Amino acid sequence: MTASSTAGTRDVRTQPVQPARIGAVQLLGVSKHYGDSIAVNDVSLDIHRGEFLTLLGASGSGKSTLLNLIAGFIDPTSGSVLLDGKNLEGVRPHHRNMGVMFQNYALFPHMTVEANIAYPLQQRRYSRAEARRKVADALDLVQLNKLAKRYPRQLSGGQQQRVALARSIVFEPPVLLLDEPMGALDKALRETLQFEMKRIHEQLGITFIQVTHDQSEALAMSDRIAVLREGRLEQVGTPHDLYFRPQGRYVAEFMGESNLFEGPNQGHGASVSIECDGLTIQAHTDLPITRGESVLVSIRPEHLQVRCEQEGAHDEGGAHSARVLASTFLGSQRRLELQLDGGREVTATLSAENARRPAPHAGDRVTVAWDPEDVIVVADRL
Amino acid sequence: MTKTSRTVLWIFCSLVAAFVALPVLIVVPISFGETRLLQFPPQGFSLQWYENFFTSPQWLRATGNSLLIGALVALTSAVIGTLVSFAIVRGRSKGGPAVTGLMTLPLVVPNVIFGTALYGIFLQLGLTGTVLGFVIAHTVLAVPYVVVNVTSSLRRLDSRLEIASASLGATPLKTFARVTLPLILPGALAGGLFAFMISFDEVVVALFLGGAGLETLPLKMWSSVQFQIDATIAAVSTLLIAVTTLIVLLYAWLQAFLRRKATQ
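Above: the input entities. Below: the structure tokens describing the complete assembly.
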């Protein structure tokens, strides 16, 4: 606290909690077997100092197992976990000094909010005055000062989540692990808390490692995302990378929606051209793809340009006739299921609808077109 | 459910309740009667049998012995039962089910057999007629009740709370003291209360172990019924019913408290 600030008017924004250090975590060929089943299969990953990394995957992808391995709640069958270059093998969870925020918060029901947050400080033998100051700072950070004397059962889900967060960062761990931090909250609350979480990450500056199955959450919050599937690492990259440069069919389908087409390449060099379901699809790529090689391309639903047929689209080059199978109004968007005249079904989303302009309905005839610039060539992983 | 069938059910349940409770409750009015014999309906009203009890050194000594033994049994079986429960619920050895089975033995072995066996050993060890002997014997009988209570508390306890405690820097011992124990304490207390009750009205094993050296309240009641029946026994019974009811209510309250905790 600076000399000029008075008690009760602490402004945490001007006084970021300075962590003792910021941790980098390294996974080296980590595997975890349970009998015959393999939960995590040879995962190597560098998690940088201070970044917000998300382990993203469907249930059973091994993402939670990986988090538990980093926290030390379980031991890897092979491979190692390093914190700032130091091998954590044999280091029990209570000596790892990592913050962990659990999915259902795991707040101690017999302790007040204050006592919950003070708990890790007591384990570290902070003086009473020091602990009180740190608890107050942590409560400020999550904006819960007024609820310090309450018990967890007297709090809403969102408030419990904030208490759990405060408790896991109050002792200034170099790394914070978050297990589905938004999992138990309703959608509206989730979106506000996403920004809240990012703000806290920026303020603390420490490394955040989050587990989630929600790709939109991962896109919104992360510096980088590691996509896991059946215990293996599929792709690591920035949200932008994963969305626009997916490596493999799984990531292309998992990150947002895709209309996928596959066929042998008939183009040359940087221009790719495939025939699939009676369509010719052209794209540009900087990937080394040879003529004749089988290529997977993706067109995002938001990149399909849909026009009603009476708008006179027949003369447009590259447009395809289609019939609307289903049309769903989603507020900011309209989602269309279309069947192209060749038989292929695709999904399109239209934005910027307004009250007067007629929207396509099921049964309408439309034309569909796309810009080759928007076609994504999916890199083959192997 | 129709109205008639509800009425029939109500009458049936009342009859069952009366069948169970009336023979017990009948001693209450008798204890306030004037006649020496156990007579129902009682004649007159007097508190002389209560006076008899509270002025008799033998009755008071027997009561004191029972309270002391009961309290010690509650304590020892709560501690031992809690430790056993941990072994059963958290232990990694394959012996868990075997221990659980062993724990139910005192519930199925007839007390007469247990008493006979114990008598032989305790006589050699000089434990008959001693508080220690009683406490050991009754603890064996009472531990299963504590185990039932504490294992269910432990199973209800979210194990992630303990993992969370570790992640916050607490050693396993600290975690036990600050998280696990406070959360299973109501279960252990409920078990302890039950253990007290088991000991407080235990008469079969007491017959083998007691005697001139040490007399518990049930023993004293037993001998007084045999040799000099008078309405004092009704007064003692009434007091016993009152104490037992109180403890059962306390137990029920603890259970309700536990459930509330669990559903939070």
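Note for the figure: The first strand of chain A starts at residue 25 and ends at 34.
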